[in-house]
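Q: What would this complex look like in 3D?
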Amino acid sequence: MTETAPDLDRLRGDAPPRNHDARTIAALTANPGCARRGLMDAAGVDKDAVARHLGFPAPFGQSQFAITRGNAFEAQVKADGCAELLTLLRERLGLDVAEVAYDDLEVVAGNEGRELRHTRTRRLLARALETGEGTLFDHPLLRLEIAGRLAYLEPDVIAFQVRGRLHVIEIKSFAVVDGQAEPEQVAAAARQSAVYVLALRRLAAELGHDPGRVSHEVFLVCPENFSNRPTATPLDVRPQLAVLERQLARLTRVDAILEALPGDLVFEPGDALAESVRAVEARYAPECMAGCEMALFCRDEARACGATGALGRSIRDDLGGVDTIATALALADGSLHPSDDLAETAAQLRAAARLRDEALLAARGGAA
Amino acid sequence: MPRSPGVPTPDALEARIAELRAAVRRAVAAGDRRAARDLRADLRLAERQWDEAVLGDAGTGNTTSPGGQDARESEARGLLPVREQVHQALTLLGAPAAPKLIGSVYAAFFPGEIAGSRLTSLRRDEERSFRTAPYARPYYLCAALTADLLAPARGLLTVSTWPLEQRIVGPLSPRTDFLTSAVRLAEHAGRGTPSPDVRRLLWRFASNIPGAVTGTVGTVEPADLAEAARAELQVHREPDRRLRASAAGRARTRLDDAERLFGSRLRALHESGGRRAAPGERGR
Amino acid sequence: MSVLSSLARLRAASTGAAEPLATVRHCHLVDAPLVLVPLKLSGEAAAPLAVMLGAAPDDATLLVVPQPRNRDLRFAFAADLAKLVLNHIETSHGSVEELPPGKEGEERIRYGNAPQLLVPNRGGVAFLRLLGRSTRFRGTEGPYAVDPAVPVLGRWLTWFAERHDHPGSSLLHAMTELLRLHWATGQSSLEDGNLAALLGWIDPPDGLDGPSAAARAEDPVACPPAGPTTDPSFDNEVLAPAIAAYHESHGDPRALERLRAAVHGQVAPTWELMWRAVGVLRALPEGASVPGRWERDRDAFTYYHQTFGEAYPQARRDPPVRAARRLHDLERAQDAYDAQRAFDDPLVMAEHRLSGQAFGGLVTECEPDRLDETGKRPKLRPLLRIGTEDPVRLDPGTVVCNAARPALKGRIVEFDGGGVLLELTGGMGRRLTAEPGTVPGVGERVCFTSLSEGSWGAARFPDREDTPWTHGGPPAEYVPTDEDAEEDWS
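A: Here is my prediction, written as structure tokens for the whole assembly.
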């Protein structure tokens, strides 16, 4: 298929590479400074299996109620030739009545092979960009280069062509109540959609078209209020695109991380696994819990060495670069003399310690 | 763990059920599927034992009697075999349709219901039957064929006696078929007094066809629905027909009898694989 | 977050026990709060699964929707919940205080008490808000009729959720927020969202310290989440089979009982935690300004209760004037609340001292009888020099007041490395000599701050009929429609 850096391949041992999906790619942007995650992702290591083997299984279970609800809503919106979706697009975007073409790219002649599906996606989207033919392209199979490796993307979305531009339509089953949805869910959807937009733009460029013909405006289709009736919300994903592109560009530098590591490093199940994982530096922050399979392991490690980052990014920022709790407390009680660059932080900490103690003493005195 | 204890007390069983539930959840969390499966089996056993110990025969009779359930269901469904029910619904619809729509149409216009679980294997059974004894039956429930590769289209059923043009689907066909079905259902409903189920079904069509809703929200005038659907159909019909006709021509020359009914899975795969391998990606 | 609270977290992390962030309680706690522990069905916006509620630890009622996707069962649940909640509201207002008549001579009263709702976390507040939104427009007549109590519940829940947005209000609280206001743990704020973990740091079960209690709390099997979302493995392995069995049994009471038992196991631990947390909070002495804020809450409750019958359900979206006024009110309330907490609590004031908006120390020089005679009449203007190590960030001329007695006001004259020179301007009586005890003497410990409770007055907003065209002009009077009443809840 594609040439992968052999150095990266050997990190997995005998295991096959794990595929990215938009969720894992979007999650890359959450903690760009983490070498451990960057390396494991670039090598396609099955982080879920690694975390489980280390005794820290990722708590990312999904409720069957949520899955059922999501599938049912999607099926409903797409039923009868996307009847509800077409109505929505006609009402909201003034889609012309003639624009009803629907191409299903999920299966090619009963075959679900990725190469085949991607080829067909490419052909139909090329035609759409050249002649304007086609309106809805369901389940396109896209590709995106991640750290020098082509990852297939299985978006659960519809690519939508109108007036010579392609849009991404993402169907989500969380409710939009009186025009508002849960911000975290919208943000997650925007991050994921940005991955699809980027992959579509790369495809357009490969096909010799202006990537700008893939719109940064995606449409989020969600149930309205407490009903099953769909509603469409346009979402501008330019900020997410910018972060994603920057992060993907940075990811290509994993070879620099790799150089500094022992040549026989491998993330294979076995007694040496924990040691191998620890050999690559992590940058744990509580936000990792939302998306990285390794988070519980890294949190345990960060806590064991008393890292301030385990308490949250804002605390690490408040402490202006003091990495460990012990150091911060020693600066606060004056038992450690700060280097010049920590002088200001140390002064703040000492003042804070004095004010805190004074207030607690006053309160105790007042109560007595 | 002993699988057949003497007679455990309900309390002991309850404790064991709680313990097993926790164990199943931990196994799932740890990604250990085999352990989860085994534990689940133990859990179901313990739950059955609890039922027997606490509820006695009444409990089992009420909850898990397959005979009773089946009898109730077949009574509700009427006595027709599933394939005949589907045939009736498809004949009324007059266009390739998904099992879900077939089920709704049958439930609205005919007595009883189609058992959803039987629909999933229907097409495979029909194909097997045809291949063993071709044309032994007056009709077969078969696939819709995709216009480009003449392969079976996902999740659509048709009737073998329909002209090939009607059974082939191009990009515009999902919409034209939806509109065609709307016209036919509306006309059929317009001949009598539509039941609430029929009205609900018609509303599903009308709310997604421009100009079809003429009265208040939730109500449909069948004649207006048919007229609106025909008006939109006018826009798509000709380009859709051309594509279907040319694909049907190809199907007639290239496919054998069974493939014409159930789609050309293997050849399409082979063809497209071979065609793609040479100029493919890198030749760009 | 400030360095001060960061330091508290660091200390908690190193000792394994929570550190106080407050020395007094900054919220009101009624004698019998209505604790609600709601659960919803995963994947749905506001499909209730269950709620455990009651106003005493040994008086819990569990309501369960045995098939949350069934609309009729949902509304039956809403009706049951409505009866309990509305009964609590009606029995919580206590005696009626007669107030002096208003400007136009109208009668004014205030209830002696008000209902207080406590839920485990922010998700619980959001759930009540959505439940309110999904029930308040329901019609009680016609084809989609519901129990008359249902829309009444919807309006009350909406009202409570709106009061929750009001800084300093104690009518509806999320327990995690209350605890975090008073304690810092040695874990991150993300982990503080878990009530069991948070309380584990503050008041660990016997034999455990903060970290071990929190670790136990993170195991969803041993310690069910506080909702409203249930643990996925509970959903898949316990709840789904129980709901399916209930469904297939066509409402067999035994299947229902099994389902209730399963759900009970998920909410009961949180119920216990809620009451333990109430006890922990009650042990703190109440802040001095808390009764005043509770009085505002009682006013709001009295008004809403008194006008309930004449009003429509709250609109889906606020019209512009109301939205602007509400925002302004919230900002004012936030400022007042922040200042009041600082005046009530030296530990909160310490935050302002660290940020330079307050300073404290010993009085080093005092000139209590100084008069300013530059004007027509002499004025009492004592001078005070306060030695402080605090990083003061106040310019000369800034008006400050005494933290212990805010009536005592002064103006900063100068500030140098070692201290602040202050000219006192008010709060010492009307004569040319200060009332005894009003001016701090040399050697006394004092704290002055630029904070004040009402730094900016209430702004004026146009009446509804004068809504400017920039904001869409006067909005149509909101009248609920049939469509509102018939909106699906599926």
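A: To summarize the key features: Chain B touches chain A at residues 28-31, 98, 100-101, 146, 149, 151-154, 171-175, 177-178, 204-205, 207-208, 210, 232, 235-236, 263-265, 268-269, 272-273, 276, 280-281, 284 (CB under 8 Å). The mean pLDDT of chain B is 82.
Q: Very helpful, thank you.
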